[in-house]
Amino acid sequence: MVVPVPRFYFHIVADTTFLDEEGTSFADGKAALLHAKQLAAELVRSLNLQDGTIVVENEDDGKLFEVPLSGLSS
User: Fold this and answer.
1) Torsion 23-14-44-54 (CA) sign
2) What contacts 24+ positions apart, CB below 8 Å, involve 69-72?
3) pLDDT at 72
4) Contact 71, 34 (CB under 8 A)
5) How many domains does the chain have?
6) Is residue 21 assigned to a domain?
7) β-pair partners for 3
8) How many angstroms separate the Cα of 20 from the Cα of each of 10, 24, 41, 58?
9) How many C-beta atoms surround the C-beta of residue 55 within 10 A?
10) Taking the CB of the first residue and of the last residue of the chain, which one, N or C, has fewer CB atoms within 10 A?
11) Is residue 17 part of a domain?
12) pLDDT at residue 32, as a whole number
């Protein structure tokens, strides 16, 4: 029996919105949340983005949660 792995989309909403058209498969929302936090930290560190958020959706349930960029140390 094959268990489908959900695809999650990580949209970056800052001065400009960047939609994740491809998405990435993760076992569950907990793994997707960890990835979103890592992505947010990398955006703050490498691009010095301070204002904005990462909106995480999946293909089945739509919007799941948001990870703000503010408050992360660079």
Assistant:
1) negative
2) 69/14, 69/40, 69/43, 69/44, 72/40, 72/41, 72/44
3) 62
4) no
5) 1
6) yes
7) none
8) 6, 9, 17, 11
9) 19
10) N
11) yes
12) 95
Q: Does 48 reside within a domain?
A: yes
Domain of 34 in residue numbering reads as 7-68
pLDDT digits (tens, 9 = 90+) for 21-55: 999 999 999 999 999 999 999 999 998 888 899 99
Residue at 2 is within a domain: no
Judge whether 69 and 54 are in contact, CB under 8 Å: yes
DSSP state of 61: T
Contact present, 24 and 8 (Cβ < 8 Å): yes
> Rounded to whole angstroms, how far apart are CA atoms 23 and 9?
4
